[in-house]
Amino acid sequence: MNRRQIIPSSDDLFRAEKQVFAGIFGRLYAGYIVRYEPEYASFLALAVARILLSMPGESEQARIFMEQNQDRIRQEILALKDETEIRRMVTDTLIMKVVALHKAGGCDTDSVGEPIDRIRTLGIYLEGNQPPTPGSFVRTASRFLSSSPILPAIPQWKG
Questions:
Q1: Is the sign of the CA dihedral 144, 20, 50, 99 positive or negative?
Q2: How far apart are CA 24 and CA 26, in angstroms?
Q3: Residue 7 contacts by C-beta under 8 Å, 6 or more apart in sequence?
Q4: What is the pTM of this model?
Q5: Is the CB of residue 77 less than 8 Å from the CB of residue 51?
Q6: Contact 124, 81 (CB under 8 A)
Q7: pLDDT 10s per residue in the chain (159 long)?
Q8: How far apart (Å, rounded) are the C-alpha atoms in residues 34 and 11?
Q9: How far is CA 42 from CA 32, 39, 115, 134, 152, in A?
Q10: Nearest CA among 62, 128, 58 for reference residue 89
Q11: Exposed/middle/buried for 71, CB within 10 Å: 0-12, 13-18, 19+?
C-alpha cells in the first residue's frame, strides 16, 4: 500500500517550533519549580528555552531578568548536556529553521548557521544519522509537547 506523504506547510512547521518551545519550557519549569520560587522558575525556564531555540521577542521584564541572571542561565544550559531528548529537539528545531530559511530564500548564508554553531559551543547540539524531514519533525514536536509536564507551568487563574 502506497500512502501519499503530506508535506507540512510553513504554518505547520511554525506550530511545531512553538510546540517544542512549550515542551522545553514545561520540562525546565517542572525541574526549576522544586528549587526556586515560581516566578523565578518561570523566567529562568523562559530564558533558557528562548536562548536554546534562538527565539527573540522578550518583554522588557524578561530582558532585564536575562541580563541580571546571565551566569545562572548559562549554568542551566550547560546542565542540559545529559538531557538527550531536549538536546535532540533543540537540534532538530534549529536544523528545520535553517532548511525553512533556505527554502524561502530569506537567509544570509553567513549568519544562517550561527544558532547551530552556538548550541555546538554550548555542548547542546546532538549529532544524528540523518536530518529530520519536515513531516517527522512535526510529528516528533507534537509527541514531545504531549509528553511534557505543561500543566504545572501554567499559573492558576484567580478569578
A1: positive
A2: 5
A3: 134, 135
A4: 0.86
A5: yes
A6: yes
A7: 455 667 888 889 999 999 999 999 999 999 999 999 999 999 999 999 999 999 976 789 988 999 999 999 999 999 999 999 999 999 999 999 887 776 666 655 557 778 899 999 999 999 988 889 999 999 999 999 999 986 554 555 444
A8: 35
A9: 8, 5, 23, 30, 11
A10: 128
A11: exposed
Residues 17 and 53 sit within 8 Å (Cβ to Cβ): yes
Q: How many residues does the chain have?
A: 159
Which amino acid would we find at residue 43? F
- Pull the grid cell for residue 68: 541580571
Single-letter amino acid code for the residue at 49: A
Spatial distance between the Cα atoms of 29 and 152, rounded to a whole number of angstroms: 8
The number of beta carbons lying within 10 Å of the beta carbon of residue 32 is 20
Domain segments of the chain: what residues? 10-153
Grid coordinates in use for 126?
546532538
For residue 147, give the 3-state DSSP assignment: coil
